[in-house]
Amino acid sequence: MMKKPSLATFSTNPKHSSKYGVRSISLPTRSHPTTVQIEEELTKLKSWETSSSSKSETICFGLSGLTRLYKCIEELLKLPLTQQALSQHKNEKWVDELLDSPLRFLDLLSKTRDETLLLKGKVEELQSVLRRRKVGDSDMENHVAEYWSLRRKMRKECTKSLLLLKQIDGSIGSSYFSLDLNNHLCAIVKVLIEASLMTSSILQSLVVFLSSPILRSKVNKWSLVSRLMQKGVFGCDNQHENNINELEKVDFGVSSLMMENLSKDAEVEKIQSAHGRLQALVVAIEGIENGLECLFKRLINTRVSFLNIISP
Predict the structure, then answer these.
(1) Alpha-carbon distance 19 to 30, whole Å?
(2) Rounded distance, CA 23 to CA 17, Å?
(3) For the whole model, what pTM was predicted?
(4) CA dist., res. 76 & res. 155, Å (int)
(5) Number of domains in the chain
(6) Is residue 273 part of a domain?
(7) InterPro entries given for it (predicted)?
(8) Which strand (E) or helix (H) includes residue 148?
(9) Which range is most confident: 208-217, 231-240, 301-310?
(10) Is residue 243 classed as helix, strand or coil in its secondary structure?
(11) Taking a C-beta distance cutoff of 8 angstroms, is the pair 183, 222 a contact?
C-alpha cells in the first residue's frame, strides 16, 4: 500500500518572505479546476505582496484579491470530495483551529471598519468647516484638534491590531505539518493556511496605512516646510506626491492650515489644497470600506460552509 503523503512532504519555508510575514507554501498536485483558480488568485496576491505599499489603491487591490480567493475556497468546500475528507476529521483539534481563523479575522475586520468610519466622519466634518470658515477661525482650530485626537487614538488601536495580526500570523499552520493526510485533504489544508497568511499580510498593510505617522498639530511655518521637504512633497513635479499616502497628505494639509502670518492669497491656497486632500482621503476610505465589506461577507460564507461540513 502506498504511504499517504504528509504536509511535511511539500516545500514549506517557515521564515517570513516579506515585511508583512507571508510564508511561501507550494500547493500539491491539482485535482480539480477550482484548485487551479485558487492558485491563480494566490499568484496575483503574491505579486501584490512584492509591490505592496501603504497607498489605499494598493490595499484595495489586495482586499479585492482576497475576496476572489475566498470565493474560490467556498467552491472548493462545496466539492463532495472535500466534504467527505473534512468530515472524517471533524472532531480533531486542527480542524477547529482552521475554523477559528476566519472568526479571528472577522473580529478584526469589524473593528477596523468601525475605525475607518470614524475617520471618514471626522474628515467630512473638516470639509464642512473649511467650506464655511477661514484659516485661523477658532471653530476650525477646534475641529483640527479633534482630528489630531482621533488620529492619536487610531494609532494606539492600530498598534494593538498589528500585534494581534503578528500573533495570528505566527500561529497559522504551526500545528499541521506533522499530520498524515491524503493528497486532496492536504491540498485543502494548505490552501486555507496560505489564504490565512495572505489575509494577515494584507490586513497588516491596511493597519500600517491607518497608523501613518502624525505631524504635530502646532508647528511653525519653517518647521513644517522642512518636514514637507523631507517627505518630498515640495518638488518640481507631481512624482514627489507619490512618496506619501492619502492620510499623510491630509496631515500635511491640515498642519499647513495652522501656520500663522500667511498672506490672504496663501490662506486661500491652503484651504483649497486642504479641500482637495480631504476629498482624496474620503474617496480612499470609501474604497477601503467597500473592500472590507466584501471580504467580511466572504469570510462569513467560508466559515458557514466549513461549519456545515463538520457540524453533526
Answers:
(1) 29
(2) 5
(3) 0.80
(4) 38
(5) 1
(6) no
(7) BPS1_pln (IPR004320)
(8) helix 138-171
(9) 301-310
(10) helix
(11) no
Residues with Cβ within 8 Å of residue 297, at least 6 apart in sequence: none
Cα distance between residue 181 and residue 179, in whole Å: 6
Rg for the chain (alpha carbons), in Å? 23
**DSSP helix/strand/coil, 25:** strand
> What is the distance between the alpha carbons of residues 243 and 190, in angstroms, rounded to a whole number?
37
Alpha-carbon dihedral 175, 179, 181, 183, rounded to 10 degrees: 70
Q: What SS3 state is found at 6?
A: strand
Q: How many residues does the chain have?
A: 312
Distance, CA of 170 to CA of 23 (rounded, Å): 10
pLDDT digits (tens, 9 = 90+) for 202-225: 999 999 999 988 865 454 444 544
In a domain, 181, yes or no: yes
Residue 232, phi then psi, degrees to nearest 5: 85, 20
- Domain extent at residue 112: 30-217+289-307
Residue 21 covered by a domain: no
**What is the full DSSP assignment across 255-297?**
HHHT-SS--HHHHHHHHHHHHHHHHHHHHHHHHHHHHHHHHHH
- How many CB atoms sit inside 10 A of residue 266's CB? 14
The Cα 36–Cα 287 span in angstroms is: 29
Picking from 34, 21, 23, the residue whose alpha carbon sits closest to that of residue 187 is: 34
- In tens, the pLDDT along 59-71 reads 999 999 999 999 9
- Least confident span in 15-24, 265-274, 291-300: 15-24
Q: Of the ranges 1-5, 155-159, 168-172, 241-245, which is most confident?
A: 155-159
